[in-house]
Amino acid sequence: MTRRFLAAIAVAIAATLLDGAVCAQVAVKTNLLYDATTSPNLGVEVGVAPKGTMQLVYGLNPWKFSTESHGKRQAKHWVLMPEYRWWTCSRFNGHFLGAHAMGGQFNATNVDIPLPGVFFGGDNIRSQVRSHSYEGGFAGAGFTYGYQWIVRRHFNVEAEAAVGYCRVWYDKYECGECGPRIKSGHTNYVGLTKLGLSLVYLF
Question: pLDDT tens digit string along 160-198?
Fold first, then answer.
């Protein structure tokens, strides 16, 4: 599926949530830490219960870089992450716990993957992506803890971290442009699945 089609799916899901949440509080947000990796992202969060919200986040990195010292480098990917949150006080204020799912695709070459977790049952992609190219997909789930601060009437700041599990399917290639495929396989990842410092706008 193309990135445009996948983005359309994300918008359609968000619109469905909004349509079913008449008079509910709605927020849009962007994760500044994710933005700092040159990965634009947008989240929509909707109140669904007095202490419950549903969130959908879409992130994308379409870039490829090339330098004389390091050659081609890329961490192309897209990710879609739905999440349910339970707030200990009231929605969009204070502590919250969440359960999220995730899925996406990636194409990585000659980059560092700063994931403090463990790969097992297949290639350790984090250590081998410096010398090989990997292309594939992933799906998983995890649990989130976070806190949201009220800054102004319509603006909040949110910090969050999540841990969980991902199943990763990949094709492994020799590093470089159009390198031959070495093998296909899968691996498992357990560890940090999300880290966020987000700017939130509430309607």
Answer: 999 999 999 999 998 766 678 899 999 999 999 999 999
Number of domains in the chain: 1
> Which residues touch 18 (CB under 8 Å, ≥6 apart)?
26, 44, 46
**Whole-prediction pTM:** 0.82
Would residue 179 be called left, alpha or beta, if left means φ above 0 and alpha means ψ between -120 and 50 degrees?
A: beta
Looking up tokens 């250590």, which residue turns up? 127
Q: At 49, which helix (H) or strand (E)? A: strand 41-49
Burial of 51 (0-12, 13-18, 19+ CB in 10 A): middle
Element (H, E) at 32: helix 32-35
Q: Which of 181, 144, 118 is nearest to 57 (CA)?
A: 144
> Residue 58 sits in which domain range?
3-202
| CB-based contact 187:120 (threshold 8 Å) | yes
CATH number at residue 197: 2.40.160
